[in-house]
Amino acid sequence: xxxxxxxITNESPRRPARRPLLHFLWSCSxxxxxxxxxxxxxxHVKFAGIGATVFFTGLLAALSGGYAFYTVFNSTPLAVxxxxxxxxxxxxxxxxxxxxxxxxxxxxxxxxxxxxxxxLAIALAVVIAKPLELRIFQGEIEExxxxxxxxxxxxxxxxxxxxxxxxxxxxSALQATTEARREQRERDYQDYKCxxxxxxxxxxxxxxxxxxxxxxxxxxxxxEYQQTKAVNDAEIAAIGQQINELDAAASTARxxxxxxAATGLxxxxxxxxxLPQGPGNxxxxxxxxxxxxxILTKLLxxxxxxxxxxxxxxxxFYLEQxxxxxxxxxxxxxxxxxxxxxxxxxxxxxxQQKQQTLRAVADARMxxxxxxxxxxxxxxxxxxxxxxxxxxxxxxxxxxx
Length: 401
Prior knowledge:
By secondary structure, the chain is an all-alpha fold. It is about 85% helix and about 0% strand. It has three domains: about 20-135 and about 275-305, no CATH class; about 155-265; about 305-380. It contains twelve helices and no strands. The N and C termini lie far apart (about 145 Å). Residues about 1-15 have low confidence and may be disordered. This is DUF4407 domain-containing protein.
C-alpha cells in the first residue's frame, strides 16, 4: 500500500463526499477544509471534536448573554437578539484563538505563544459563567434581594419609628401620671370611708372632725385626678394622632424604599457575592475547562498530517510570493535600465545635436568674418590705388625733371 502523501500543487485537493455536519464542525474549528479533506480520518475526528467544543461554548455564551440582557432590558426579543450577538462574538473569538495556534517549533515555544490565548480563554470563561451562575442560583439571589429590600425599608422608616417611640414613651408617662393620681384618689377614698365607718383611724363611727378632714382630702384628690386626667387625656390623644401620622409616614417611606430597591444585573451580581463561593467557583471552573479544552487539545496533540500539509502549502505559497517579488524586482530593474539607456541615448543625441549646431554656428561666423576680412582687403586695395599714381606716370615725371 502506498502511504506517501499526495504532492501538493496549486490545484485544490479533491473533496470527499459532502457531509454538512462534519464540514460545519470543521468550519467551527477554524481549519482549512480543503487541506483537512486530504488528511486521514483521524484528523477529521480531531478537528470535528475541536469544532464541536467551540460551537457549544458559543451556544452557552448565547444563553448566558441572553439571560443577562433579559435582566437588564426585561424584554424577550431584545434578550434573544443581544444573546445571539454575544454568542456570535464569543464563538468568533474562540474560533480565532484555536485557528491561530500552529504546531511548529518546540513545545515551550508553542506554550509561550499560547499564553495570551489562554488568558483570553480564562477571561471568556468568567464572563460566560457569571450570568449562568445568576440563573442557576436565582432563588437564593431573590431571597437575598428580598432581605436587602426589607433592610432598606426598615432603614428608611427608622427615623419615624424613633420619633414614634419617643412619643409613645411620653404617652406612657402621661398615662402613668394619670394612674398615679387615680390610685392616690382611691387611697384617700378608702381612708375617708374607713374613718367614717370607724374601722380605721380614730375608730369612732360617724362624721367627726377626722372624717370631715379625710373627706376633704379625698375630694381634693378627686379634683386633682379629674384635672390631671383631662389634661393628660387631651395630650395623649394628640400624641396618638402624631404616632399614627408617623406610622403612616414610616410605612410610606418603607414602601418607597422597597420599590426603589435595585433588582437589576448589578444588584444581582452584588447579591451573588453573599452566596457560598464553592458552587460559583465550580461553575467558573467548568466553563474554564470547556473554554481551554480546544487550546489544550491543539497544544498537547502531536504534529499531525494536517499540520504537515498546511505547512507545506504555506511554505510553497511563501516561496511563490518570493518568486513573484523577485520577478517584479527584475522587471522593474529592466524597466529602469531600459529607461536609463533611453534617457542616456536621448541625452547623447541632444548633446551631439547641440555640438553640431554650435559647430555650424562657428563655421558660419568664421565665414562671415572671412567675408568681412576679404571685403576690407578689397577696400584697402582700392583706397591704396586711388591715393598713389601708377608707376609709369611717376617715371615720366622724373624724366621731365
